[in-house]
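Request from the bench team (R.T.):
"We need a structural guess for the complex before ordering more fe (ii) ion. Sequence and SMILES attached. Just send the tokens back."

Command: build protein-fe (ii) ion structure.
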Amino acid sequence: MLTEIKEKLKKTLPEKRYIHSLGVADEAKRLAEVYGCDADKAYLAGLLHDCAKGIPTDRQIAECDRRGVSLDEWTRMCPPVVHSFLGEQIARDEYGVTDGEILEAIRLHTVGGRGMTLLDKIIYLADLTEKNRDFPGVEELRAASDKGIDEAIKLSIKRQTEFNMAKNAVIHPAALYMWNDLILNGDTKTEGH
Ligand SMILES: [Fe+2]
Ligand SMILES: [Fe+2]
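Reply to R.T.: structure attached below.
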């Protein structure tokens, strides 16, 4: 089954994106073993997380509408986020994934959301830290991901929010829901006001 999925994915995605997907699958499996999550599910979710990226960004919203995928107003304003919602549907329709936990992890891998499971968090983080990724601060994020998954995700939300604010870009509220969840339920709760 995995071989068929890889062959189909390889045909669908640009080469660089396919290599990234393999990297995310490997890193998700590794993190699952470190943090006590199902490694096979993590591998499959990692492999398929960007399965919608074969569709050009400017056609993804129309494709969501065609397939009956509902997008909220914020997601419609953030084109780079749309592929995760479309990816959930494509994983279901075209790769035969029925496991709700895997589908959710694909859906939440871009901006996260409320009540993230360990699998959701692993895919979110592995997407950023897999071995082919290269951006300023990636090493710090990789090191953080081995110390604690919640702290690593907080670091990445801080960076991405600062980046978007510096550009005067919209902040997707799901990222803030995830941030608040981590603050309220994590080990480092502090008074916000
Ligand atoms: Fe993605
Ligand atoms: Fe990705």
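Two things stood out. The radius of gyration is 16 Å. The mean pLDDT is 95.
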